[in-house]
Amino acid sequence: MATQTRNGKGRFIRAADSRKRDHRAAELRTQGWSLQRIADELGFASRGHAHNAVMRAYADIPSEASEHAKQLDLERIDRLIEKAWEIMLRDHLTVSQGRVVGKQTGWQRDDDGAILRDGEGNPVPQYEDVLDDGPALAAIREIRSLLDRRAKIMGYDAPARSRIEVITEDVLDAALADLEAQVAANDAAAQRAAGEAAPVPRA
């Protein structure tokens, strides 16, 4: 089994082939390829792995080129958000078996307010189209995903990652010990309060 070497900071060093594939992924990304297409083309396990490869390549290449590639991604994301926003605001009709679904809201009336009737004397129903919220909800989910991707590219979530990195096992043990001490103190105070409130037996 192949082994990976680590640098002085304990991090794995990427092999030349892996680095080359990362840079190829970044190149395809700048050409407008989707992450899924890149994953399929270069053999990544998922879109997420392809995205990580692109981010690694961005970190390797010179700053000017990296910023240009990021800017291209941000512009595409902005266009996608704009399109998804249009879909979210648009009314979508419910369609079943190729027909628009409607619900009866009353009867059709003439200018004088009298109910209109068909040739057989039956009142003519009035229908209202039933709207479908599914496309709007799907657009909302897509917008949230695009905003999350945008935040990662721009580094908005970097402080959160830094915070997670400093929560070591020692820090967690100390926090648990403090919590247990607070619980014990609260229990003791409750027991003292209950003792003071208990009635004193008469002699």
Could you characterize the architecture of this molecule?
This protein has about 200 residues and is mainly α. Helix content is about 60%, strand content about 5%. The strands form 2 sheets. The chain has a two-stranded antiparallel ribbon. A two-stranded antiparallel sheet has the order 3-4. The longest helix has 29 residues, at about 170-195. The protein is flat, with a radius of gyration of 32 Å. It starts with 15 loop residues before the first helix and ends in a 6-residue tail after the last helix.
Question: Main traits of this protein?
Answer:
two-stranded antiparallel sheet; about 200 residues; disordered N terminus; mainly alpha; 7 helices
Question: In a nutshell, what does this entry contain?
Answer:
The protein is mainly alpha-helical and 203 residues long. The protein has helices spanning 16-30, 35-42, 47-60, 63-89, 134-154, 158-165, 169-197, and strands at residues 95-96, 99-100, 102-107, 125-129.
